[in-house]
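thought: fold this chain, then report.
action: predict
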Amino acid sequence: MKVLIAYASAGSGHRKAAEALYNYFRKNCPSFNLEIIDVLEKANPLFKNLYSYGYLFLVNHALWLWWLGFWLTYIKRLRPVTKAFSQIINALNEKKLLRFLIQENPDFVISTHFLPSEAVARLKKSKNLDSKLITVITDFGIHPFWVLDSTDIYIVASDFSKEQLLLEGVQEDRIKVLGIPIDEKFLKPYDKETICDKFGIDPNKFTVLIATGSFGIGPIEEIVGLLYKDVQILAVCANNKRLYTKLRNKNYPGVSVFGFIDNIQELMAISDIIITKPGGLTLSESLAMNLFPIFIMAIYGQETENIRILSKYNVGIYAKCTSLVKEKILYFKTHMDKIKSVKENVYKIKKPFAVREICNVVCEGSCGAACRRSV
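observation:
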């Protein structure tokens, strides 16, 4: 059986979700003919660059334009126009992708971005493809671009996400609340003292992890300056080399500075709380590691929707200014019992086994017992 896992490299979350699925399937379903693709690699080069870097440019330099675009595409009355316009632009730039999909004709397409979902749905509607389309929505909120008539199954993060799809007219039997796929490394037990020893961290001090994604954006430097005298800090600068250099040169006591790393799960395992942006993948990873999040720099749209939905479970605090970040951190430091209390809410929403459950969906629909399940 041929399974194609597709994503678009517009931000790291969609790619990470796809890779988590690919790695799990490769390990547990060896009989599958498995392939993973970034659909932007099969698009017009200009379109690819605009898609890959446009989001980063907008949120850093023209946030009002991003807000306007998100708002316009959300308005129900305008959707026939905005969706049609988007799909025409996509179709003009995806001819290579469409030929690839027709040639490969996979039994299943598992998509972690609405761009490949839309391409597959278009081919299914025109009878050029008969693949089963599983769309994995990588945020807690649902943007209308995810909703496509030819989608066979939607995988969503929470019951509130399911309710949003139902309001969009999606039949209930096409929706499965399984969570957002994360790497299995976030599910393993870790020994705190061993990891603290590895990084030279004091295991007895209140520890705050600051990580805002692969670009290291946000007021990280300011937050570190406000907090370093009161708590132990793990600051992840990721690809922000300028920030990394500045924090290293400040040489604050009790502050460990990291660049781009692939072992964030170890830092999560030794932290008491995380300061982060509310992206879907980061949230799912943090929840799997039982970390209560304080959100900063929420971008209007999918990130504010993530905050809204998590607030229904009393998970997370949105600190709109750095002084509020400090206030909340010091409160939790002096009320450790409250951290235990809020973590009880984390258990109610986290769904760490999404990769296994999505694999089961595919296996039950195709090869049954041929898949080995071992999470």
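thought: worth noting. Residues 368-375 have pLDDT under 50 and may be disordered.
final: tokens above.
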